[in-house]
């Protein structure tokens, strides 16, 4: 009976490890791209990535993200153009798997679509006092805004697995005490 419980616990833990190892595109974007790129908010260090999936085929993007400089050195016209448009600033090679890059590209596509749906903010008059104000703007941060949906789902799955393991252990304990 103890081996069955160990087997079930191992299955749950392996399933959780598999879920947590597969990062979503948003997390990968923040970790690998967000320091240099935005999606629909203008150029940062590198170009704005809004619509990047429409500008380049996926196969080209996979090669570019893995090693932009190899493509520039090989004379790819689009790679050379991008390199020159960004003042000769080389993009850092990203050690990501194809599946991870595709996940990031999908995230960029979804974020870009969300940008198109967002309502346009109305302009508020700007006073000279607000322009000259050196006070930092404080944004309230809710705990709900700190994590992505997949992180909440992983946490919920973990709690569910802990509850299931607890129930199984309690049941096995009860069953073993009934036998005695």
Q: What does this 3D model show about the protein?
A:
This protein is 62% helix and 0% strand. The protein has 180 residues and is mainly α. It has two domains: 96 residues, Cytochrome c-like domain (Cytochrome Bc1 Complex, Chain D, domain 2, Orthogonal Bundle), CATH 1.10.760.10; 33 residues. The radius of gyration is 24 Å and the shape is elongated. The two termini are 15 Å apart. About 10% of the residues have low confidence.
Précis, in short:
With 180 residues, this protein is an all-alpha fold. 62% of the residues lie in helices and 0% in strands.
Strand/helix succession: HHHHHHHHH
CATH class of the largest domain: Mainly Alpha
Q: How many beta-strand segments?
A: 0
Class per helix and strand makeup: mainly alpha
> What is the C-alpha radius of gyration, as a whole number of Å?
24 Å
CA distance, first residue to last residue: 15 Å
- The CATH architecture term of the largest domain is Orthogonal Bundle
Mean pLDDT over the residues = 78
Give start-end ranges of low-pLDDT stretches: 13-22, 135-142
**Judging from the principal axes of the Cα atoms, what is the shape?**
elongated
In CATH, the homologous superfamily of the largest domain goes by the name Cytochrome c-like domain
Biggest pleated sheet? none
Helix content: 55-70%
């Amino acid at each position: 009976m103890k081996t069955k419980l160990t087997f079930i616990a191992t299955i749950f833990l392996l399933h959780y490890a598999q879920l947590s190892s597969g990062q979503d595109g948003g997390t990968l974007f923040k970790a690998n791209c967000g320091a240099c790129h935005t999606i629909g908010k203008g150029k940062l260090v590198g170009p704005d990535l809004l619509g990047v999936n429409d500008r380049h085929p996926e196969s080209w993007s996979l090669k570019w993200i893995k090693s932009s400089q190899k493509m520039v050195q090989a004379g790819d016209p689009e790679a050379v153009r991008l390199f020159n448009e960004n003042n000769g600033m080389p993009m850092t090679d990203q050690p990501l798997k194809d599946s991870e890059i595709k996940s990031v590209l999908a995230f960029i596509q979804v974020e870009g679509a969300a940008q198109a749906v967002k309502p346009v903010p109305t302009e508020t008059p700007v006073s000279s006092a607000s322009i000259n104000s050196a006070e930092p703007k404080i944004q309230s941060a809710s705990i709900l805004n700190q994590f992505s949906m997949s992180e909440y789902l992983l946490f919920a799955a973990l709690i569910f697995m802990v509850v299931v393991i607890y129930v199984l252990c309690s049941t096995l304990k009860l069953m073993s005490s009934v036998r005695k």
